[in-house]
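Work Package 4 report. The design task specified in the project plan requires that, given a folded chain encoded as structure tokens, an amino acid be chosen for each position. We show below one input record used in the internal validation round.
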């Protein structure tokens, strides 16, 4: 009678042999692949025609946002990783449980709150933001509250009791914690500012959209 150990050993050997057989079959298939159609091989790259958004353009977006804040009665907006943060300051950041946020006031200097161990990467990304010169980066350690950094920054701007616009994709856990840290502030949606900027395209943005439409 075959033992349990011998059975398992035989099964493992059979599985390995099957896998190797599959690899050989894949090699045979790849060697028999047909050439790509001419319509595919003839495609030309468009990347050389795409002109990146500049730091100056991002600065102009921020100024437009400030103007919209003043007309909407919003004293500052809070942006976190996502399309709006990328749009206004060019920072491409993966959302996580560790808070990174930018506060852009209608009047005064914007500031960024980020984990202390990410400060170097944040500074590197800010080089394309229009905020690189003397950027106000407020870091927090693992045993500290990032929401207190937001609260202190708003206090320094005289906005502890101001109207703060929260970007529409900010997760509730963050917006609620900020509201608790700044209890006198009034929290509202930042959509009149963010959408007000993004739905009206500049000539450069229109050119980039048209270029993207050319891609097959």
């Amino acid at each position: 009678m075959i033992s349990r150990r011998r059975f398992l050993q035989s099964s493992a050997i059979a599985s390995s042999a099957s896998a190797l057989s599959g690899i050989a079959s894949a090699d045979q298939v790849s060697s028999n692949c047909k050439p790509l159609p001419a319509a595919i091989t003839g495609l030309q790259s468009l990347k050389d025609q795409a002109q990146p958004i500049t730091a100056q353009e991002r600065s102009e977006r921020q100024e437009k946002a400030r103007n919209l804040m003043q007309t909407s009665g919003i004293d500052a907006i809070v942006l976190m990783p996502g399309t709006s943060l990328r749009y206004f300051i060019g920072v491409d950041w993966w959302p996580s449980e560790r808070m990174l946020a930018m506060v852009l006031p209608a009047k005064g200097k914007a500031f960024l709150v980020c984990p202390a161990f990410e400060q170097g990467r944040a500074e590197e990304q800010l080089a394309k933001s229009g905020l690189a010169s003397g950027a106000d980066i407020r870091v927090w350690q693992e045993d500290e509250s990032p929401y207190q950094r937001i609260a202190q920054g708003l206090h320094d701007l005289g906005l502890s009791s101001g109207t703060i616009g929260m970007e529409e994709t900010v997760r509730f856990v963050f917006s609620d914690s900020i509201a608790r840290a700044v209890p006198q502030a009034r929290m509202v949606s930042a959509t009149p500012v963010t959408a007000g900027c993004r739905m009206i395209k500049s000539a450069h943005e229109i050119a980039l959209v048209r270029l993207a439409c050319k891609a097959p």
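The chain has a mean pLDDT of 83. Validation will be extended to a larger panel in the next phase.
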